[in-house]
Design a protein that fits this description.
This protein has about 290 residues and is of the alpha/beta class. Helices cover about 35% and strands about 20% of the residues.
Length: about 290
């Protein structure tokens, strides 16, 4: 005898909105406070329109230190402008650059950096920061945090109603997580015009949220607009130098069909472009290449 078929039916008199209950085919709505992310595309896909306050947000990426600050800085700038409290960064892989943070709205004096010589020390520091009433937000780099440790951080953030981001490697994606929101972030190059130099961007995939799965990733800017302009200018100069070099090689080969020719002297334009040393040169060269 074939097994009876089962069908899921919803009672017609069931209210469409029940406090604390959300439908799986819609974004969750409820009393959860949120902080706008500063990225309109991301806000539109998050329950409540922003980062959940008093809950764990887990961010996974291939390499630590690439996209964390650009992802959360707009929210931190808004939060610190409206409320008192410190932002605690636990075990960051790179030293935060105060002038860059200030330029994007986060006063460096509001940032407290905590160094940790072990995973256990980093977790302890993050939990203690969350239990401090004078802390507004916590950013913690915890590549080896087990699920039990993450649950403790989630509870501590809920008690004090703080913003909490935990950054972990992308290899942690298959592991279970108590995070209310889970994102995967990877870098790529953005260009609205194929003939123009690309700018660094972020590809954000929402792995977990109160709502239906998001199949397509979101493309967000990967750096501040002013930095993007500087990178584009560097890339244009590099591209111009490459064009000049190719033209010189072509003329050199045409003038010496037998392979006998004197060494070439670089043209003045080439010398001027090569002589401009800049901290962004290597990034710009990657963009132009």
């Amino acid at each position: 005898m074939p097994a009876p078929s089962l069908s899921l039916r919803i009672a017609p008199d069931l209210p469409s909105a029940v406090p604390g209950v959300w439908h799986a085919d819609a974004l969750g709505a409820g009393p959860q406070a949120t902080q706008p992310t500063g990225h309109a595309l991301l806000d539109a896909q998050l329950p409540g329109g922003g980062w959940p306050v008093g809950a764990l947000c887990e961010v996974l990426q291939p390499l630590a230190g690439l996209h964390e600050w650009q992802l959360v800085l707009p929210a931190l700038a808004q939060a610190t402008a409206r409320r008192a409290g410190a932002v605690v960064a636990v075990a960051p892989p790179c030293e935060p650059f105060g002038p860059a943070l200030k330029a994007q709205g986060l006063p460096p004096e509001r940032l407290c950096v905590v160094r940790a010589d072990s995973a256990r020390a980093a977790f302890w520091a993050a939990e203690q920061a969350l239990r401090c009433g004078d802390v507004l937000a916590v950013m913690a780099w915890l590549p080896q945090a087990p699920a039990a440790a993450l649950r403790r951080l989630q509870l501590a953030a809920a008690q004090q109603q703080q913003l909490l981001w935990v950054f972990r490697p992308i290899s942690a994606a298959p592991q279970a997580s108590p995070a209310l929101l889970r994102l995967q972030v990877q870098g790529w190059w953005l260009s609205a015009d194929t003939s123009a130099p690309a700018a660094p961007g972020m590809q954000v995939q929402i792995l977990k949220r109160r709502g239906p799965p998001l199949v397509q990733a979101l493309d967000l800017p990967g750096c501040h607009p002013r930095l993007a302009q500087a990178l584009a200018a560097q890339a244009e100069r590099r591209h111009a130098a490459q064009v000049v070099a190719r033209a010189m090689v072509a003329r050199y080969n045409a003038a010496a069909p037998g392979g006998q020719a004197a060494p070439m002297r670089p043209e003045p334009a080439m010398v001027a472009l090569q002589g401009r040393g800049h901290a962004l040169d290597r990034i710009a060269a990657a963009m132009a290449g």
